[in-house]
Amino acid sequence: MSKAVKSKKKSTAPGKKLRVACIGAGGIAAAHMSEYAKMKDVEIVGLADPMLEPMHQKAKDFNIPLENCFADYEEMLKKLAPDAVSVCSPNYAHAPNTIAALRAGVHVIVEKPMAMNAVEAQKMIDAAKKYGRKLIIGFQWRFDGRSSFLRQAANDGVFGNILYAKVQALRRRGIPNWGVFGRKELQGGGPMIDIGVHSLEMCHYVMGSPRPVAAVGNCFTYLGNKPSDTNCSWPGWDWKTYSVEDLAVGMIRFENGAMLNIEASFAAHIEKDVFNFSIHGDKGGCQFEPTMLFTDAHKHMLNMTPSFIGNSNWGGVWVGKMRNFVEHCLYDVPTIAPAEHGLMSQKMLDAVYESASKGGREVAIK
Predict the structure, then answer these.
(1) pTM, whole model, 2 decimals?
(2) Confidence at residue 24, expressed as pLDDT on a 0 to 100 scale
(3) For the chain, is the Cβ count within 10 Å smaller at the N or the C terminus?
(4) SS3 113
(5) Are 353 and 116 a contacting pair, CB within 8 Å?
(6) What sign does the CA torsion over 123, 124, 125, 127 have?
(7) What are the strands of the beta sheet with 69-70, ordered from one edge?
(8) Is 6 within the bounds of a domain?
(9) Domain that residue 106 falls in
Protein backbone atom coordinates (compact mmCIF):
# COMPACT_ATOMS: atom_id res chain seq x y z
CA MET A 1 0.00 0.00 0.00
CA SER A 2 1.67 3.17 -1.15
CA LYS A 3 -0.56 5.55 0.79
CA ALA A 4 -0.56 5.97 4.55
CA VAL A 5 -3.32 4.03 6.28
CA LYS A 6 -4.43 4.68 9.83
CA SER A 7 -4.13 1.55 11.93
CA LYS A 8 -6.85 0.35 14.24
CA LYS A 9 -4.27 -1.37 16.46
CA LYS A 10 -0.98 0.43 16.91
CA SER A 11 0.50 3.84 16.24
CA THR A 12 3.96 4.41 14.83
CA ALA A 13 3.93 8.15 15.43
CA PRO A 14 6.98 10.36 15.00
CA GLY A 15 9.15 10.37 18.10
CA LYS A 16 9.06 6.65 18.82
CA LYS A 17 11.33 3.91 17.58
CA LEU A 18 10.11 1.42 15.05
CA ARG A 19 10.31 -2.00 16.68
CA VAL A 20 11.24 -4.45 13.93
CA ALA A 21 11.71 -8.21 13.68
CA CYS A 22 12.75 -10.60 10.94
CA ILE A 23 10.95 -13.71 9.77
CA GLY A 24 13.74 -15.80 8.31
CA ALA A 25 17.29 -15.50 9.61
CA GLY A 26 19.41 -16.20 6.53
CA GLY A 27 21.76 -14.00 4.55
CA ILE A 28 19.08 -11.58 3.37
CA ALA A 29 17.89 -11.09 6.95
CA ALA A 30 21.44 -10.10 7.86
CA ALA A 31 21.38 -7.48 5.10
CA HIS A 32 18.11 -6.08 6.50
CA MET A 33 19.34 -6.06 10.09
CA SER A 34 22.67 -4.48 9.15
CA GLU A 35 20.77 -1.45 7.88
CA TYR A 36 18.28 -1.40 10.76
CA ALA A 37 21.18 -1.45 13.23
CA LYS A 38 22.50 1.84 11.82
CA MET A 39 19.23 3.71 12.41
CA LYS A 40 18.58 5.64 15.61
CA ASP A 41 14.81 5.40 15.20
CA VAL A 42 14.77 1.59 14.87
CA GLU A 43 15.04 -1.18 17.45
CA ILE A 44 15.56 -4.80 16.35
CA VAL A 45 13.46 -6.84 18.77
CA GLY A 46 13.43 -10.43 17.51
CA LEU A 47 13.87 -13.22 15.00
CA ALA A 48 11.87 -16.21 13.82
CA ASP A 49 13.31 -19.18 11.94
CA PRO A 50 12.87 -22.95 12.34
CA MET A 51 16.64 -23.38 11.85
CA LEU A 52 17.79 -22.53 15.36
CA GLU A 53 21.58 -22.56 15.05
CA PRO A 54 21.93 -19.92 12.31
CA MET A 55 19.18 -17.85 13.95
CA HIS A 56 21.02 -17.86 17.28
CA GLN A 57 24.20 -16.78 15.52
CA LYS A 58 22.35 -13.87 13.91
CA ALA A 59 20.92 -12.96 17.31
CA LYS A 60 24.44 -12.87 18.75
CA ASP A 61 25.66 -10.75 15.83
CA PHE A 62 22.94 -8.16 16.36
CA ASN A 63 22.63 -8.26 20.16
CA ILE A 64 19.18 -9.82 20.18
CA PRO A 65 18.35 -11.76 23.38
CA LEU A 66 17.98 -15.50 22.76
CA GLU A 67 14.58 -15.41 24.48
CA ASN A 68 13.45 -13.22 21.58
CA CYS A 69 14.28 -15.93 19.03
CA PHE A 70 11.43 -18.21 17.97
CA ALA A 71 11.08 -21.29 15.82
CA ASP A 72 7.42 -20.31 15.26
CA TYR A 73 6.88 -16.90 13.64
CA GLU A 74 3.26 -16.77 14.86
CA GLU A 75 4.52 -17.07 18.44
CA MET A 76 7.03 -14.28 17.83
CA LEU A 77 4.34 -12.00 16.46
CA LYS A 78 2.13 -12.67 19.46
CA LYS A 79 4.76 -12.37 22.21
CA LEU A 80 6.87 -9.52 20.84
CA ALA A 81 4.16 -7.53 19.00
CA PRO A 82 6.64 -5.73 16.70
CA ASP A 83 5.61 -2.67 14.71
CA ALA A 84 7.11 -4.03 11.50
CA VAL A 85 8.75 -7.14 10.10
CA SER A 86 11.10 -8.04 7.30
CA VAL A 87 9.93 -11.23 5.60
CA CYS A 88 13.18 -12.87 4.52
CA SER A 89 12.02 -16.47 4.22
CA PRO A 90 12.11 -18.66 1.08
CA ASN A 91 9.59 -17.78 -1.61
CA TYR A 92 7.03 -20.43 -0.64
CA ALA A 93 6.66 -18.83 2.81
CA HIS A 94 6.33 -15.20 1.71
CA ALA A 95 2.54 -15.18 1.52
CA PRO A 96 1.73 -17.02 4.79
CA ASN A 97 4.40 -15.08 6.71
CA THR A 98 3.22 -11.74 5.33
CA ILE A 99 -0.49 -12.36 5.84
CA ALA A 100 0.08 -13.52 9.43
CA ALA A 101 2.08 -10.39 10.19
CA LEU A 102 -0.52 -8.10 8.62
CA ARG A 103 -3.26 -9.87 10.56
CA ALA A 104 -1.27 -9.20 13.74
CA GLY A 105 -1.26 -5.47 12.94
CA VAL A 106 2.33 -5.34 11.70
CA HIS A 107 3.78 -3.45 8.73
CA VAL A 108 5.70 -5.66 6.26
CA ILE A 109 8.56 -5.43 3.82
CA VAL A 110 8.74 -8.72 1.93
CA GLU A 111 11.69 -9.78 -0.16
CA LYS A 112 11.35 -10.37 -3.88
CA PRO A 113 9.63 -12.08 -5.54
CA MET A 114 6.51 -11.00 -3.70
CA ALA A 115 5.10 -14.54 -3.63
CA MET A 116 5.02 -17.84 -5.49
CA ASN A 117 2.33 -16.52 -7.83
CA ALA A 118 -0.08 -13.66 -8.43
CA VAL A 119 -2.94 -15.34 -6.55
CA GLU A 120 -0.86 -15.30 -3.37
CA ALA A 121 0.30 -11.75 -4.06
CA GLN A 122 -3.30 -10.54 -4.37
CA LYS A 123 -4.19 -12.19 -1.04
CA MET A 124 -1.30 -10.29 0.56
CA ILE A 125 -2.58 -6.98 -0.82
CA ASP A 126 -6.09 -7.81 0.34
CA ALA A 127 -4.79 -8.54 3.85
CA ALA A 128 -2.90 -5.23 3.97
CA LYS A 129 -6.10 -3.38 3.11
CA LYS A 130 -8.23 -5.40 5.51
CA TYR A 131 -5.94 -4.92 8.50
CA GLY A 132 -4.86 -1.37 7.69
CA ARG A 133 -1.14 -2.06 7.52
CA LYS A 134 1.58 -1.10 5.04
CA LEU A 135 3.05 -3.62 2.63
CA ILE A 136 6.02 -2.91 0.37
CA ILE A 137 8.25 -5.13 -1.75
CA GLY A 138 12.04 -5.42 -1.45
CA PHE A 139 12.83 -3.98 -4.88
CA GLN A 140 16.19 -2.43 -3.97
CA TRP A 141 17.25 -1.65 -7.52
CA ARG A 142 14.61 1.08 -7.67
CA PHE A 143 16.79 2.93 -5.17
CA ASP A 144 19.84 2.73 -7.43
CA GLY A 145 20.85 6.17 -8.68
CA ARG A 146 20.88 4.88 -12.26
CA SER A 147 17.23 3.81 -12.01
CA SER A 148 16.28 7.17 -10.50
CA PHE A 149 18.10 9.05 -13.25
CA LEU A 150 16.45 7.05 -16.04
CA ARG A 151 13.01 7.30 -14.45
CA GLN A 152 13.43 11.08 -14.27
CA ALA A 153 14.48 11.14 -17.93
CA ALA A 154 11.34 9.19 -18.84
CA ASN A 155 9.20 11.57 -16.78
CA ASP A 156 10.81 14.52 -18.56
CA GLY A 157 9.83 13.09 -21.96
CA VAL A 158 13.35 12.26 -23.16
CA PHE A 159 12.17 8.94 -24.62
CA GLY A 160 8.79 10.12 -25.89
CA ASN A 161 6.44 7.16 -26.27
CA ILE A 162 8.21 4.03 -25.04
CA LEU A 163 7.87 1.31 -27.66
CA TYR A 164 10.17 -1.52 -26.60
CA ALA A 165 12.41 -2.65 -23.75
CA LYS A 166 14.97 -5.42 -23.40
CA VAL A 167 15.76 -6.92 -20.00
CA GLN A 168 18.65 -9.28 -19.22
CA ALA A 169 19.66 -11.06 -16.02
CA LEU A 170 22.11 -13.67 -17.28
CA ARG A 171 24.71 -15.74 -15.49
CA ARG A 172 27.17 -17.85 -17.46
CA ARG A 173 27.44 -20.41 -14.66
CA GLY A 174 25.81 -19.16 -11.47
CA ILE A 175 23.51 -21.86 -10.15
CA PRO A 176 23.15 -21.20 -6.39
CA ASN A 177 24.82 -23.92 -4.34
CA TRP A 178 22.99 -23.02 -1.13
CA GLY A 179 19.35 -22.67 -0.11
CA VAL A 180 16.45 -24.03 -2.15
CA PHE A 181 16.95 -21.99 -5.34
CA GLY A 182 16.91 -25.10 -7.53
CA ARG A 183 13.62 -26.47 -6.22
CA LYS A 184 10.59 -25.29 -8.14
CA GLU A 185 8.10 -26.44 -5.52
CA LEU A 186 9.73 -24.12 -2.96
CA GLN A 187 10.82 -21.22 -5.18
CA GLY A 188 8.21 -21.10 -7.93
CA GLY A 189 10.88 -21.15 -10.63
CA GLY A 190 14.54 -20.53 -11.37
CA PRO A 191 16.45 -17.53 -12.75
CA MET A 192 13.35 -15.81 -14.12
CA ILE A 193 11.73 -15.50 -10.68
CA ASP A 194 14.99 -15.16 -8.74
CA ILE A 195 17.19 -12.70 -10.64
CA GLY A 196 15.07 -11.84 -13.67
CA VAL A 197 12.53 -10.21 -11.36
CA HIS A 198 15.11 -7.58 -10.35
CA SER A 199 15.92 -6.34 -13.83
CA LEU A 200 12.27 -6.72 -14.86
CA GLU A 201 10.80 -4.65 -12.05
CA MET A 202 13.53 -2.00 -12.41
CA CYS A 203 12.90 -1.59 -16.14
CA HIS A 204 9.12 -1.67 -15.64
CA TYR A 205 9.49 1.11 -13.05
CA VAL A 206 11.51 3.30 -15.44
CA MET A 207 8.87 2.68 -18.14
CA GLY A 208 6.23 4.15 -15.82
CA SER A 209 4.76 0.80 -14.67
CA PRO A 210 2.34 0.18 -17.59
CA ARG A 211 -0.22 -2.59 -17.11
CA PRO A 212 0.83 -5.92 -18.70
CA VAL A 213 -1.85 -7.64 -20.79
CA ALA A 214 -0.22 -10.71 -22.39
CA ALA A 215 3.00 -12.72 -22.56
CA VAL A 216 4.72 -15.56 -24.39
CA GLY A 217 7.78 -17.44 -23.22
CA ASN A 218 9.75 -20.60 -22.88
CA CYS A 219 12.06 -22.29 -20.37
CA PHE A 220 14.98 -24.64 -20.91
CA THR A 221 16.85 -26.96 -18.54
CA TYR A 222 20.04 -28.54 -19.85
CA LEU A 223 22.83 -28.13 -17.26
CA GLY A 224 21.51 -27.72 -13.73
CA ASN A 225 19.94 -31.16 -13.47
CA LYS A 226 23.16 -32.99 -14.36
CA PRO A 227 26.48 -33.49 -12.52
CA SER A 228 29.23 -31.16 -13.71
CA ASP A 229 33.01 -31.01 -13.37
CA THR A 230 33.31 -27.60 -15.07
CA ASN A 231 35.25 -25.08 -12.98
CA CYS A 232 33.06 -22.18 -11.87
CA SER A 233 32.66 -19.80 -8.94
CA TRP A 234 29.61 -21.62 -7.53
CA PRO A 235 30.34 -25.35 -7.91
CA GLY A 236 28.60 -28.26 -6.26
CA TRP A 237 24.94 -27.33 -6.54
CA ASP A 238 22.41 -30.05 -5.77
CA TRP A 239 21.70 -31.30 -9.28
CA LYS A 240 19.62 -34.22 -7.99
CA THR A 241 16.86 -31.93 -6.67
CA TYR A 242 17.23 -29.31 -9.42
CA SER A 243 13.79 -28.82 -11.01
CA VAL A 244 13.92 -25.23 -12.30
CA GLU A 245 14.99 -23.77 -15.63
CA ASP A 246 18.56 -22.87 -16.59
CA LEU A 247 17.34 -20.30 -19.12
CA ALA A 248 14.02 -18.51 -19.49
CA VAL A 249 12.96 -16.08 -22.20
CA GLY A 250 9.76 -14.13 -22.61
CA MET A 251 8.00 -11.33 -24.43
CA ILE A 252 5.47 -9.19 -22.54
CA ARG A 253 2.91 -6.88 -24.12
CA PHE A 254 1.51 -3.87 -22.28
CA GLU A 255 -1.82 -2.06 -22.43
CA ASN A 256 -0.18 0.98 -24.04
CA GLY A 257 1.19 -1.14 -26.90
CA ALA A 258 4.79 -1.32 -25.66
CA MET A 259 6.66 -4.63 -25.69
CA LEU A 260 9.31 -5.99 -23.32
CA ASN A 261 11.69 -8.87 -23.97
CA ILE A 262 13.26 -10.64 -20.99
CA GLU A 263 16.10 -13.17 -20.74
CA ALA A 264 17.23 -14.78 -17.48
CA SER A 265 19.67 -17.60 -16.81
CA PHE A 266 21.51 -19.44 -14.06
CA ALA A 267 23.63 -21.23 -16.66
CA ALA A 268 24.11 -20.15 -20.27
CA HIS A 269 26.85 -20.34 -22.89
CA ILE A 270 27.57 -16.61 -23.03
CA GLU A 271 30.72 -14.49 -22.79
CA LYS A 272 30.03 -13.08 -19.33
CA ASP A 273 27.29 -12.34 -16.82
CA VAL A 274 24.86 -9.59 -17.80
CA PHE A 275 22.52 -7.49 -15.62
CA ASN A 276 21.07 -4.77 -17.77
CA PHE A 277 18.09 -3.27 -19.54
CA SER A 278 17.54 -0.91 -22.44
CA ILE A 279 14.53 1.17 -23.44
CA HIS A 280 13.59 2.37 -26.93
CA GLY A 281 11.19 5.27 -27.48
CA ASP A 282 10.13 7.34 -30.46
CA LYS A 283 12.24 10.31 -29.27
CA GLY A 284 15.10 8.63 -27.43
CA GLY A 285 16.37 5.62 -25.58
CA CYS A 286 18.63 4.49 -22.77
CA GLN A 287 20.54 1.67 -21.18
CA PHE A 288 21.14 0.92 -17.52
CA GLU A 289 24.80 -0.16 -17.62
CA PRO A 290 26.83 1.72 -18.59
CA THR A 291 24.19 4.39 -18.01
CA MET A 292 23.55 6.31 -21.20
CA LEU A 293 20.82 8.28 -22.98
CA PHE A 294 20.45 8.16 -26.75
CA THR A 295 18.67 10.88 -28.69
CA ASP A 296 18.91 13.28 -31.64
CA ALA A 297 19.80 16.95 -31.26
CA HIS A 298 21.45 19.71 -33.31
CA LYS A 299 21.15 17.51 -36.41
CA HIS A 300 23.25 14.80 -34.78
CA MET A 301 22.77 11.53 -32.95
CA LEU A 302 23.91 11.94 -29.35
CA ASN A 303 25.06 9.45 -26.72
CA MET A 304 24.87 11.17 -23.33
CA THR A 305 26.52 9.91 -20.16
CA PRO A 306 25.94 11.53 -16.75
CA SER A 307 29.13 12.70 -15.05
CA PHE A 308 27.96 11.60 -11.59
CA ILE A 309 25.27 9.30 -10.23
CA GLY A 310 24.94 8.58 -6.53
CA ASN A 311 23.86 5.32 -4.88
CA SER A 312 24.93 3.21 -7.85
CA ASN A 313 26.29 0.34 -5.80
CA TRP A 314 25.00 -2.58 -3.75
CA GLY A 315 25.45 -0.86 -0.41
CA GLY A 316 23.76 2.32 -1.56
CA VAL A 317 20.63 0.62 -2.83
CA TRP A 318 20.20 -1.22 0.46
CA VAL A 319 20.46 2.01 2.44
CA GLY A 320 17.72 3.52 0.29
CA LYS A 321 15.52 0.43 0.38
CA MET A 322 15.55 -0.08 4.14
CA ARG A 323 15.44 3.60 5.05
CA ASN A 324 12.42 4.11 2.80
CA PHE A 325 10.57 1.27 4.55
CA VAL A 326 11.27 2.73 7.99
CA GLU A 327 10.23 6.23 6.94
CA HIS A 328 7.15 4.83 5.19
CA CYS A 329 6.09 3.19 8.46
CA LEU A 330 7.09 5.90 10.94
CA TYR A 331 6.58 9.14 9.02
CA ASP A 332 4.20 8.25 6.16
CA VAL A 333 6.89 8.96 3.55
CA PRO A 334 5.67 7.53 0.19
CA THR A 335 7.26 4.37 -1.15
CA ILE A 336 8.39 3.69 -4.71
CA ALA A 337 8.02 -0.08 -4.20
CA PRO A 338 4.30 -0.54 -3.45
CA ALA A 339 2.69 -3.96 -3.28
CA GLU A 340 0.65 -3.21 -6.40
CA HIS A 341 3.88 -3.06 -8.43
CA GLY A 342 4.96 -6.35 -6.90
CA LEU A 343 1.69 -7.86 -8.08
CA MET A 344 2.24 -6.65 -11.65
CA SER A 345 5.74 -8.14 -11.66
CA GLN A 346 4.32 -11.40 -10.33
CA LYS A 347 1.68 -11.49 -13.06
CA MET A 348 4.36 -11.06 -15.73
CA LEU A 349 6.47 -13.86 -14.26
CA ASP A 350 3.44 -16.14 -13.97
CA ALA A 351 2.47 -15.51 -17.58
CA VAL A 352 5.94 -16.32 -18.94
CA TYR A 353 6.02 -19.57 -16.98
CA GLU A 354 2.46 -20.47 -18.00
CA SER A 355 3.25 -19.79 -21.65
CA ALA A 356 6.32 -22.02 -21.37
CA SER A 357 4.15 -24.82 -19.98
CA LYS A 358 1.83 -24.42 -22.98
CA GLY A 359 4.52 -24.64 -25.64
CA GLY A 360 5.04 -20.92 -26.00
CA ARG A 361 1.42 -19.95 -26.68
CA GLU A 362 0.37 -16.42 -25.71
CA VAL A 363 -1.18 -16.09 -22.26
CA ALA A 364 -3.52 -13.27 -21.28
CA ILE A 365 -2.68 -11.29 -18.14
CA LYS A 366 -5.74 -10.13 -16.21
Answers:
(1) 0.92
(2) 97
(3) C
(4) coil
(5) no
(6) positive
(7) 69-70, 42-48, 18-23, 84-87, 107-110, 135-137
(8) no
(9) 18-141+318-335
Confidence of residue 13 (pLDDT cuts 50, 70, 90): low
* 163 and 78 within one domain: no
- Mean pLDDT, all residues of the chain: 95
Are the CB atoms for 262 and 204 separated by under 8 Å?
no
In this structure, the chain runs to a length of 366
The rounded percent of the chain whose pLDDT value lies above 70 is: 96
Domain co-membership, 127 together with 216: no
Question: Does residue 123 sit in the same domain as residue 194?
Answer: no
* Structural domain includes residue 291: yes
The count of domains in the chain is 2
Q: How far is 96 from 194, CA to CA, in rounded Å?
A: 19
Are 113 and 144 in contact by the 8 Å Cβ rule? The answer is: no
Is 9 inside any structural domain?
no
- For the segment 135-182, what is each residue's pLDDT rounded down to a tens digit? 999 999 999 999 999 999 999 999 999 999 999 999 999 999 999 999
**How confident is residue 310, by pLDDT bands cut at 50, 70 and 90?**
confident
Nearest partner of 264 among 364, 362, 363, 194, judged by Cα: 194
